Amino acid sequence: MQFLREYKLVVVGGGGVGKSCLTIQLIQSHFVDEYDPTIEDSYRKQCVIDEEVALLDVLDTAGQEEYSAMREQYMRTGEGFLLVYSITSRQSFEEIMTFQQQILRVKDKDYFPIIVVGNKCDLEGERQVSKQGKSYILGEIALLDDFYKLSKLGLFNCNLTDHRTEGEALARSFGCKFIETSAKSRINVDNAFYDIVREIRRYNKEMAGYTAGGASGAGNGGPQNKLEVGEGEKDRGCCKCIVM
Q1: Domain enclosing residue 231, as ranges
Q2: Distance from the CA of 90 to the CA of which of 48, 118, 175, 216 falls in 20 to 30 A?
Q3: What is the pTM of this model?
Q4: What is the CA angle 110-116-118, rounded to 5?
Q5: Distance between CA atoms of 10 and 83, rounded to whole angstroms?
Q6: How many domains in the chain?
Q7: What tens digit of pLDDT does each residue of 211-239 get?
Q8: What's the CATH code of the domain at 227?
């Protein structure tokens, strides 16, 4: 009998970015047209990811600021986080950095399994977060103070003149993967959730080796082998899911 490993995934992001739509599309293969602000919903789904059985326990969280007090509770219990913004909302993209900092603070880690998700990629004509090579120095002057502060803390290692997609550049600064999705068109929905499971597995394996070897990691986060964008793509295999 194959062991069924449960993964506690938390979907985080501002209001209206499509967190619930992504989650429901994963669980039910259905797109929800109406926007109904979420307070907190939990979903479970059994999958086979890279030939290993996984039970995904997905927590869909509130994006509205009035529910910010609830965030630390689910951040304490989450094993992996999908940081979701909408490519049609500059504000939602800028909020991602705040969520990432809060997760690391609550976890008391220098690194934790995270994936940055740019949702609504089907709305290309309304894009506010650039897909073309846009320089942070030329295009994101308002954010430079935050970048420099994080850089001094060792939490932001992105080259400000790196001409990449803004989402990818931000993910690189976090040391995590980046993916663009569309809940409406079901583009990369499964991949986003499966990739965070893969990252949890990788992280747990590294931490187990760190503990067994008695190695000394930097800070409280243990090993600092952050994932480079594109790493692990070759491991993406056939994944099957069964709704519980």
Answers
A1: 5-243
A2: 175
A3: 0.75
A4: 160
A5: 9
A6: 1
A7: 776 654 444 444 444 454 444 444 444 44
A8: 3.40.50.300
